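Hi Y.,

Following your request, here is the sequence exactly as I used it, all 268 residues.
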Amino acid sequence: MREFSDEELERYSRHIILEDVGIEGQEKILNSKILIIGAGGLGSPIAFYLAAAGVGEIGIVDGDVVDTSNLQRQIIHTTSDIGVPKVESAKAKMLFINPHVKVNTYHTMIGTHNILDIIKPYDFVIDGTDNFATKFLINDACILANKPYSHGGILKFSGQTMTIEPHKSACYACVFNAPPPPNVVPTCSTAGILGAVAGMLGTIQAAEALKFVTGVGTPLYNTLLSFEAKKMAFKSVKFSKNPKCRVCGENKITYLTDYEQAVCEIKK
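Below is the corresponding structure, written out as tokens. Let me know if you'd prefer a different format.
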């Protein structure tokens, strides 16, 4: 077992005194590697909480720079970060909270050409992206590489999330077969998003990641959790793994394909 320093015992004391976490659970967190894809509305609270928790190695992927429209919900960035790559802005805040974590940055857009190499070193992947094409690509890559991951999506006053264990639980494509045609479903840039909704869902995704690495509780396997913030109503819908799923079913995928991107991109 790892020997904790006095500073670590104090820093992580509220985890250590949790009956279901303890020293062993905190050691698992410190030894874990988690990748966040997207440093925007969802990625911001996820990055904050994983760094604060002491996740040993955190990767963060995003090809954008900070702009003024981000600041209403992307709480890891500040006005002085405008024009700075989001991954570098996020890394600075994560290390400010916890200088003991290692943060790997990937200032790039995710695609079939790089996603498998990027996710390879990590134990768990978190989808904090903002468009269907990338969400389906992340699902496909995680199934192909056997990487558990958390899906998350937000729009207006609503959010949804599920956790996928490849080849054991239902995947994203088991529930949603394929991306909708471009411009059929509104995006955050066209329909808006209440900033706090991103924080609500991102925090749930961070909790799912920490549950996974510690082995505490039951992740949202085979479960789509959704909420509507205007009435603060939460709903869980159960799903089963689809044996005919085009991604993880009997004729599961053996290679990746780029999905058609919506014409109107969501501003992250």
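The chain has one domain: 32-238.

Thanks again,
Q.
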